[in-house]
Amino acid sequence: MDVLTPRQRSHCMSRIRGKDTKPEVVLRRALWSVGLRYRLHAKITGRPDIVFSGSRVAVFCDGCFWHGCPKHSVKPKTNRSFWLTKLAKNRARDERVVAALKAEGWTVMRFWEHEIEDDAVKVAKRVARAVKRSGGRPRAS
């Protein structure tokens, strides 16, 4: 049972940020520390969180709840029908965006928030390898 009224819950949910989230900021700092330079929220398909345009690498930082992490996702107990539909649509959109970006020649990398929180430097090094492999310079623009 939800301890908040529907109005209070709606307000809480509306305050959740879509960009500059804690995992995203942590990853950006780690990328900077390994010498990578990037663009934020570039106006390309899917609006990736971090973009290396020179090497065409797009990085998404996915929240465990919002994107249905198999390890940490929790099924909502209230308004279940709404949330299950919403989360399924989020996952379907993620798949469409990945397919579209790949068709446009992008390398797409998606990381769960728990991966970033557990070891951001390890994630940053994986991104650095992808940038290098894609023919980009370490200081991508």
Please report the distance between the alpha carbons of the first and last residues.
48 Å
- Count the DSSP helices: 6
Low-confidence stretches: none
Structural class: alpha+beta
Molecular shape: globular
- Relevant CATH superfamily: VSR Endonuclease
- Provide the CATH top-level class: Alpha Beta
Give the number of domains: 1
Give me the CATH architecture, please: 3-Layer(aba) Sandwich
Q: Tell me the series of helices and strands, N- to C-terminal.
A: HHEEEHHEHH
Order of strands across the biggest sheet? Answer: 1-2-3-4
Biggest pleated sheet: 4 strands, mixed
Helicity range of the residues? 40-55%
Instruction: Kindly provide the radius of gyration, computed on alpha-carbon positions and rounded to a whole number of angstroms.
Output: 17 Å
The fold-level CATH name is: Endonuclease, Chain A
